[in-house]
Amino acid sequence: MSPLTKLFVVLLVVLSLLLSAGVIVFVNQTADYKVLQQTAVEQKNAAMAEKDRLSAEMETVRANADAEKAAASRQVEAMRQDLNKARQDLISAQTALAQATNQAQIQSVSVTSLTGALQGAQNTLSALQNQITELRTSNDKFATQNEQLNLTVTDLTNRLDVTERERKLLSEQLAEARGQTDRQGAMLKEMGVSPAQLASAGTRLSAPAINGVIRDIRPIYGAQYARISVGSADNVVKGMQFNVINHDTQQFLGKLTVETVEQNESTGRLEGPLVGQIRTGADVKTQLQ
User: Fold this and answer.
1) What are phi and psi of 99, to 5 degrees?
2) Does the global pTM surpass 0.70?
3) Is the CA virtual torsion 144, 145, 146, 151 positive or negative?
4) Distance from C-alpha of 225 to C-alpha of 10, rounded to nearest angstrom
5) Domains of the chain by range and CATH?
6) pLDDT, tens digit (0-9, with 9 covering 90-100), for 90-139
7) What is the DSSP letter of 289?
């Protein structure tokens, strides 16, 4: 086998490995989009279920409130009837007292008997007045309970409105995520670049030489992320890898894999043996000199 043939075989193997790596990265990215979309759908369904639950709860409370209000109205009506009866009894007692007085004057009954009848009528009147006071107190109590039930219905209505706004917001976020996914796919298609090629651009030896510095470092979900000073204006793309170098000692500290790209800056995840030593101001380079 000639050296040229061996060279072609080695190149074929390397290109196959690069193609496999690109396909894996593209599949992983597609899976991430599907997970985000599925999460948004689940959140929307949860919000709709919470809305239905709150609606059912509100209807139950409203039905209970109506039932209690009707019961209170019936009790008030019964109390009113009792009050009217008490008034009629009072009138009857007053009439009886008048008749007793007339009979006493006509028949000249003893003063003691008339005094006893009068005292009994007064006691009856006092008892009826106490009943009237109790009925008024009960009426005030039922009015207070009715007001509290109305406040409960109002609170549940407000909670339902909040849930509806959250559902609409999740629906808008889901639509935006779908639109962003479609726009990114269309842009890649128009540029003639496949997602696999784009994702593996930062790992090839032919990646452009781009140098920058780390602006800040922050932990996100247990991993270290850093913001660097180069972005799309410097030909940075998502998936590109940078070597992190100590600015003073030129010691290799780790790698940064770009995840989000803006015009003049990018953000990526830090990995490597000395991630804990990476500080603001460290150099980032796609190519080591």
Assistant:
1) -65, -40
2) no
3) positive
4) 36
5) 41-189 (1.10.287), 206-285 (2.40.30.20)
6) 888 888 888 878 886 877 766 577 478 778 878 888 887 888 788 788 87
7) -
